[in-house]
Amino acid sequence: MSTATATHDQHDHHPTGITRWLFTTNHKDIGTLYLWFSFIMLLTGGAMAMVIRAELLYPGMQVVDPNFFNMMTTMHGLIMVFGAIMPATVGLANWLIPMMIGAPDMALPRMNNWSFWILPFAALMLVAPMFMGGNFSSGQGPAFGWTFYQPLSGQYDKLAFFIFAVHLLGLSSIMGSINIIATILNMRAPGMTLMKMPLFVWTWLITAFLLIAVMPVLAGAVTMMLTDKYFGTSFFHAAGGGDPVLFQHVFWFFGHPEVYIMILPAFGIVSQIIPTFSRKPLFGYASMVYATAAIAFLSFIVWAHHMFTVGMPVAGELYFMYATVMIAVPTAVKVFNWTATMWKGSLTFETPMLWAVAFVFLFTIGGFTGLMLGVAPADFQYHDTYFVVAHFHYVLVTGALFAIIAAVYYWLPKWTGHMYDEKLAKIHFWVSAISVNVLFFPQHFLGLAGMPRRIPDYAVQFADWNFVSSIGGFVFGLSQILFLFIVIKTIRGGAKATDRVWDSADGLEWTVPSPAPYHTFETAPEIK
Amino acid sequence: MVQAQGSYYLPKPSYWPLVGSIGLFLTLGGFAYALVNKTDAGMGNMTAMYVGMAVIVFMLFGWFGTVIRESQAGKFNDQVDVTFRMAMAWFIFSEVMFFAAFFGALFYARQLSVPWLGGAGNNAMTNELLYPGYTAAWPTNGPGEVGGKFETIGAWGIPFYNTLILLSSGVTVTWAHWGLKKGNRAQLILGLLATVVLGFTFLGFQAHEYFEAYTHYNLKLTSGIYGSTFFMLTGFHGLHVTLGATMLTVILIRCIKGHFTAKHHFAFEAVAWYWHFVDVVWLGLFIFVYWL
To answer: Is A355 a residue of the active site?
Structure first.
């Protein structure tokens, strides 16, 4: 990204060339690295999604063989979750949190570098087996779904690479989260009380807590897989007194908080953007904070709603159902607050606002289908169908990803000093917003009609909607190339951005020059 | 929280994190390679793993050495100290959650999966059709009697002595801390030395217990769910004791060198916290793995 810096501060010197990025301890450099890494992963995982949709364009087998298809669904999920969404939000946290709280940098800058530079190696280890086996089409990558259920995943003969890749990803997340918590709790400028923090900072504080709580549990789960596979333990083998269902419990104890890890920072982003373009303060700030905390708490006690059909005592089904639908309450608080913020506001619809409003609308659809899935007896019908696929893509693509894209448009002028091309950005938005619904909305119908997920071929009665969905998928995929183009164009030039960028943007990051100097707030600002 | 920030120490660009990443990649990638290529003759080539471990050790000396030099040069103000404390506390919390996963597996097996295999709840037919004649009990190596008949290690022998040893070491490390705060060097070094000795004694007993288990009780990692939970829980704990005792040794050396003052000794406290954490995990192990 742009190396131009506005100040002539004497501390401003830093290594140039590749070593600047390899050895950097600067939160802005590291944020940039995270964001580019996640963009590359987004395009990689997106390319895999294109292969999936190409195979599903027509019934029958035409593009890839079944194992390769399974590998694509598995790697697509893993790369998007661990490679695209999570690093993107960490990148935003790196760039923004120190500027938002008036801190000179992250609390532990060297560990910050390590958190990032573990990621490319982890990604390499995750992807490497795809290239083992001579050529790409006979690759030996994981092909057991991103949830890697036992005993299927235990039969995979390159399992150790996958397990250690997960360990590395966990290590990176834990260190990153420790850093974020220490930064937020210890580095705030004088007067920046907790309840004055921007909501993005709040959501990340709670997200970081979730990460530290559940990534070690995931590490435990994959360690049990490792010893079951290579050292003869019986955690997931009934013959030895273990249980494959135990894996699902441990995995989803991680997995459910994980979905909030991906969406809470998105909530924070939207809570920053909507007030700016409504020209009103956020409605119900305190209730937003409490709702975020309530969602985080509930996320720990609902995991088995992913396992309704696996076999559970009825009392368990009932408990997990009621606990799950309870999450709708704090989530609805948030949706109503965003709506109330816009109510009677002086609204304008610059690109970040378009993405944010689309987020509110489309994420809510994903939330409602989540409620449907949370009802245990109904879930028996929907489980492992395309309805589930539609549900989590609405919350993760039109939810998390839309918010991340909104954030990029919103803060890009602050990062680069240039305004993006509003016309192109609006085209990007409208093409994406329409095509993403063409892509995922029909998958609800497919699922309700009984089409199972993770299959390369399907009954002909599903042909029409699959065709529609695939066309939407190709358009959505291609429109992200436009996004890449817009970002690069903005970095290279464009109208000069003012310091405040948006006329009613509120927060410390808008008080520093655009582009933000290499070091900001070396002297803490005073917060009134 | 609110302090003068101009003096918050921000380190210059550093190559140690990247060295650490390369070390981790070689170690884990090399280990994975050895496992994937494992045959009856043994593990696959482990060269990359050993090289990676050497790189990690090199990184630890380099990175910690840098931090110690910075600390000695007085670059860390109180606010940096608070950051370190928070980081250590949250790191220990992550360790607690790691052990929670394995304790969770133990409770799940004892309370749910083993009774279900024996026909509890609505699983009468599971038992009847799949595992006829299997009666749920603990300890067990499952209906397949995986690993063959085995005996367990009683709580009131070595495990009980080890409990006393670890609890005493918690006392000695606190006594050493008092010495440090009072400026009593002899008490500091003696207390810490006692802690290190107790730590390694614990490990010696644990090694002996493993040896006995493998040679006399036929209790192995492969002894079904009992062996799995027993060795994974006590094994990971032992690993953490090894790490803790090693860190205590480093701190002892630093104490002898006079690195710490009554006010400024975060490293000492961090390791003491870690040691108490290891202690508490052991109490959980003693109660749920050995005793009940």
So the answer is: no
Query: Three-state SS for B42?
Result: strand
Query: Residue B71's domain spans which residues?
Result: 1-75
Query: Can you read off the two tokens belonging to residue A465?
Result: 């909607």
Residues B132 and B266 reside in one and the same domain: yes
- For residue A175, the surrounding DSSP H or E stretch is helix A159-186
Beta carbons of B225 and A241 less than 8 Å apart: yes
A225 has pLDDT over 70: yes
Is B106 an interface residue toward A (CB < 8 Å)?
A: no
Active site residue A256: yes
Q: Please say if the pLDDT value at position A12 is more than 80.
A: no
Contact: B36, A160; criterion CB under 8 Å: yes
Region B89-107: mean pLDDT is: 98
**Do B16 and B142 share a domain, yes or no?**
no
Do A221 and B101 count as a contact with CB atoms less than 8 A apart?
yes
Of B23, B50, B75, the one marking the end of a domain is B75
- For residue A1, name the pLDDT band (cuts at 50, 70, 90): very low
Instruction: Based on the fold, state whether residues B162 and B63 are members of the same structural domain.
Output: no
B26 contact partners, CB below 8 Å, separation of at least 6: B48, B49, B51, B52, B55
Q: Residue A290 — left, alpha, or beta (φ > 0 → left; ψ -120 to 50 → alpha)?
A: alpha
CA distance B15 to B7: 23
- With tokens 């607690």, the residue in question is B96
pLDDT tens-digit series, residues A239-287? 999 999 999 999 999 999 999 999 999 999 999 999 999 999 999 999 9
Of A89, A153, A172, A278, catalytic: A172
pLDDT tens-digit series, residues A384-399: 999 999 999 999 999 9
Residue B170 shares a structural domain with residue B261: yes
3-state secondary structure A429-468: HHHHHHHHHHHHHHHHHHHHCCCECCCCCCCHHHHHHHHH
Chains A, B: CB pairs < 8 Å: 241
Listed residues B18, B41, B75: the one ending a domain: B75
Task: Copy the structure tokens of residue B291.
Answer: 């005793």
> Is residue A295 scored above 70 in pLDDT?
yes
Q: Is the pLDDT of residue B176 over 60?
A: yes
Task: Compute the nearest-CA separation of A243 from chain B (Å).
Answer: 6
Å between A224 CA and nearest CA of chain B:
9
Structure-token pair, residue A252 = 């989803």
Question: B70 with B82, same domain?
Answer: no
B196 plus B238 within the same structural domain? yes
Does A331 qualify as catalytic in the annotation?
yes
Question: Are B3 and B133 contained in the same domain?
Answer: no
Determine what percent of chain A is predicted with pLDDT higher than 70: 97
- Taking CB atoms and an 8 Å cutoff, what residues of chain B touch A246? 105, 108-109, 113
CATH number at residue B43: 1.10.287.70
Domain boundaries, chain A: 6-511
- Contact B86/A at CB under 8 A: yes
Question: Into how many domains does chain B fold?
Answer: 2
Domain A6-511 CATH assignment equals 1.20.210.10: yes
CA-closest candidate to residue A242, choices A256, A224, A254: A224
pLDDT digits over B120-152, tens only?
988 899 899 999 999 999 999 999 999 999 999
Q: Which 8-state DSSP code applies to residue A276?
A: H
pTM metric for this prediction: 0.95
Do A164 and B29 contact (CB within 8 A), yes or no?
yes
pLDDT given at position A3: 41
Q: Nearest-CA distance from B201 to chain A in Å? A: 28
pLDDT at B205 over 80: yes
The set of residues, in sequence order, having a beta carbon less than 8 Å from that of B197 and lying 6+ positions away, is none
CATH number of the domain that residue B181 is part of = 1.20.120.80
- Residue ranges of alpha helices (H) inside chain B are 16-36, 47-72, 78-108, 114-117, 124-125, 158-182, 185-212, 224-256, 266-285
For residue B146, give the nearest of A20, A224, A239 by CB distance: A239
Model pLDDT, residue A98: 97
